[in-house]
Amino acid sequence: MNGNLVHANILEYIWMSIKNYLALLRVEQYVKNLFIFLPLFFALKITHVDLLLNNIVAFLCFSLIASAVYILNDYKDIEEDKKHPVKKLRPLAAGLINHRKALTIMALLTIISLAVSYYVEINLFFVLLAYFAVNVAYSFGMKHVPIVDLFIVSGGFVFRILAGAEASGVEASMWIILMIFLLALFLGLAKRRDDILLSMNGHNTRKNIDGYNLEFVNAGMIIMAPVIIVSYISYTVSPQIIEQFHTR
Predict the structure, then answer these.
(1) d(CA 163, CA 151)
(2) Furthest C-alpha separation in the chain
(3) Which of 15, 54, 95, 125 can pair with 167 through a Cys bridge, CB separation 3.0 to 4.6 Å?
(4) 168-to-2, 37, 45, 57, 93 alpha-carbon distances in Å
(5) Rounded average pLDDT over 81-85
């Protein structure tokens, strides 16, 4: 009986450790990296197996380096996250994972991602390197510069598009870059709005809402919504797209 109990406790400990490390890597955020497949999809080449395989490798490489960025960001934001009603549950803020272990994992993920991407496609390597460098700057201070922080976060989705384009050799059109950037910018404003509302309700959340206020964010979202719609309409009726799909 005691043996079964010990065995159950060991399994529970292992499972909790796995959950903590998956939370550290933010595996659930990998869905964002599906944007990598968009250039291939809209070029109508998603069924080309060789190009698709390259995009899958790019997806894996981007996921690893994105996890490294998340770890660095969480490490820099430990004290702020402890004050947040949700983010205080993250492994580093909650003290569930040793800081040194987390930084070691971050370094390994970065090296593996860059090494594999260099082997697959040199331009993919440079896209990932640029993404990592920009996000290091973000973690070490740019996140506290109003507007600039939003552009960096939104630019992360553009990097995903570029990674997919470079991995598959498919050119990323101006339209897909514009649409993804605008949509990400809108969602970034929505996220800032949530943080401002939390702050107004007495939660001391993050410094990155300094320089923002509810009126500005609301106005920004109201402006961005029609801009996104008009941009999409312009895309659908552009001569380039009509020629590609042979239909309006």
Answers:
(1) 18
(2) 74
(3) 54
(4) 56, 9, 9, 10, 38
(5) 77
> Cα(89)–Cα(62) distance, rounded to whole angstroms?
25
Strands (E), the chain: none
Q: Predicted confidence band at 5 (pLDDT cuts at 50, 70, 90)?
A: low
As given in the structure block, the two tokens for residue 104 are 């070691």
CA distances from 131 to 86, 165, 233 (A): 27, 15, 30
Q: In whole angstroms, give the CA distance from residue 73 to residue 21.
A: 15
Q: Rounded to whole angstroms, how far apart are CA atoms 95 and 149? A: 27
The pLDDT tens digits of the residues spanning 196-227 come to: 887 777 665 566 677 788 888 899 999 999 99
Nearest 5°: the CA angle 65, 119, 103 is: 25
Residue 237 CA, distance from chain mean position = 30
Determine the average pLDDT of the residues in 68-89.
84
User: Taking the C-alpha atoms of 215, 217, 219 and 224 in order, what is their torsion angle to the nearest 10 degrees?
Assistant: 180
Considering the chain, what is the average pLDDT of its residues? 87
